[in-house]
Amino acid sequence: MPDRNLSCRKSLFFLFAMATLLILVSWVLLLDSTGASRLIDNHRLSISTPNRVFSISEPASVAAARRRPNALSRESDVKKCDPNSAMLKVFMYDLPPEFHFGMLDWQPEPNSNSVWPDIAKKIPGYPGGLNLQHSIEYWLTLDLLSSRFPDRPGPCSAVRVMDAKEADIVFVPFFSSLSYNKFTKEKVKTKVNRDKELQDKIVKYLTEQKEWKRSGGRDHVIMAHHPNSMLNARMKLWPCMFILSDFGRYPPNVANVQKDVIVPYRHMIRTFVNDSAGFDDRPTLLYFQGAIYRKDGGFIRQELFYLLKDEKDVHFSFGSIRQNGISEATRGMHSSKFCLNIAGDTPSSNRLFDAIASHCVPVIISDEIELPYEDILDYSKFCVFVRFGDAVKKDYLINLIRGISREQWTQMWERLKEIEGFFEFNYPSQKDDAVQMIWQAVARKLPFLRLKLHRWKRFARFEVGLKASRFSPYN
Ligand SMILES: *[C@@H]1O[C@H](CO)[C@@H](O)[C@H](O)[C@H]1NC(C)=O
């Protein structure tokens, strides 16, 4: 009896196995015929919202560039902006000009009621020199202002909407970095700090808006790229999404990698166009230029100087790049294989982006650094990371650098040339340049933003209008 039972079970199992196999085979065939298997192969995960699809994976261009070198061609991108397919619908406050283009010495026409310059005619210039490293506020605002131009070229990641209820985010066009640079470094010290005054004004303005009250600021995007910008306001506007260069001077509850977006500095060094200067054409092994003593993490620079000063193919010089030093620094970085990026008084600096624009492989010694778009970009493919603790060991750094082969270096150099466009700020913006990449990074935060917002709203219906102020963090 037990034998027969067993063989019965065996044949049942066989039948079951065959059936399963058949189902699997037909499933695979079906997938193939619909093209769905391609999606699965690429490990793309798409989220659909009405009319819009965005995917949680690297942009197609990043993936394409990974597969084919030099694939970031601009020719194929001369498409028009299609507002319906934008990832991000943005409502922008019509702030008084003193918060933005007024700081660029622009004034509205006497009989105009627009707070914005007519940028189709003339674009007010942003102050040059070191101000430019933090000019992100300028590029993003210009991009939004032009997002509905009928002849706007290139695909657009973000479009402006005039009704806040249609918007994914609310954009605050306050040029806070310029406000810091312009008003706190004035030669003649004024009694009232104009930068602080503008910050107080913006807090008051925002917290009075119905858009702010509706979300407690959770869907607001505020730019504070200069580490010292928004110094007073940041503690009051913390529920918003900040656009920052790093988190060095922020407590983690005010800004963190989950909620906020890290974006590049605009580089100061000229982009190395048509770079054919490979391994043997770059005589300097390792290049560093920077201030010798900065507070906080800065001691490491001095340590490294003593470790490296006798290496003959290492360029190590102190003094920050000023306007007239840019040509010299450009020459230096364009003729170096590796460029050191050492933490100064903040974890980030524009030096990393200068190195990328020079295709000089960055050597990053900054344990606390946060990098732009790192959720979709693997920096280890074109940067060398060294921990503080290792970098100060005798001969560690120089041996590591000398141990990188010509082939390994050339791979990183090729990758730098593929990705450099992600760090270029343009107007009009181009496909996957820094402006588009920043909007896309903001769009990738939307699921988390909505989660936060919906959780906050659970009980808000009882309170909004009655005690809305209870939800604002500043009283
Ligand atoms: C780079 O190369 C292209 C194509 O050969 C050429 O048209 C362009 O002028 C070059 N640019 C520079 C700055 O050399």
Question: Quick one: how many beta strands?
Answer: 13
Q: Strand order across the biggest sheet?
A: 4-3-5-6-7-8
- Helix and strand succession? HHEEHEHEEHHHEEEEHEHEHEEHHHHHH
Helical segment count: 16
Summed over residues and divided by their number, the pLDDT gives a mean of: 84
Structural class per helix/strand content? Answer: alpha/beta
Task: Give the radius of gyration.
Answer: 26 Å
Which ligands occur here? 2-acetamido-2-deoxy-beta-D-glucopyranose
User: How much helicity do the residues have?
Assistant: 25-40%
Protein name: Exostosin GT47 domain-containing protein
InterPro entries: Exostosin, Exostosin_GT47
GO molecular function: glycosyltransferase activity
Membrane topology: Single-pass type II membrane protein
Structure explained in plain terms:
- The chain crosses the membrane at residues 12-30.
- It is found in: Golgi apparatus membrane.
- It comes from Asparagus officinalis.
- Keywords: Glycosyltransferase, Golgi apparatus, Membrane, Signal-anchor, Transferase, Transmembrane, Transmembrane helix.
- Strands 4-3-5-6-7-8 form a 6-stranded parallel β-sheet. It has a 5-stranded parallel β-sheet with strand order 10-9-11-12-13, sandwiched between helices. A two-stranded antiparallel ribbon has the order 1-2.
- Residues 30-60, 63-78 and 465-475 have low confidence and may be disordered.
- The chain has helices at residues 2-34, 36-41, 60-67, 136-145, 176-184, 194-208, 210-215, 299-308, 326-334, 351-358, 388-391, 396-402, 406-419, 434-444, 446-457, 460-463, and strands at residues 46-49, 52-55, 88-92, 158-160, 169-172, 220-223, 241-244, 261-262, 284-290, 314-318, 336-342, 361-365, 384-385.
- Helix 5 (176-184) runs antiparallel to helix 6 (194-208).
- Helix content is 35%, strand content 12%.
- The chain has 475 residues and is an alpha/beta fold.
- It has 3 domains: 13-43; 82-266 and 432-471, no CATH class; 279-423, Glycogen Phosphorylase B (Rossmann fold, 3-Layer(aba) Sandwich).
- It has 16 helices and 13 strands.
- The longest helix has 33 residues, at 2-34.
- The structure holds 2-acetamido-2-deoxy-beta-D-glucopyranose.
- 2-acetamido-2-deoxy-beta-D-glucopyranose is lined by residues 273-274.
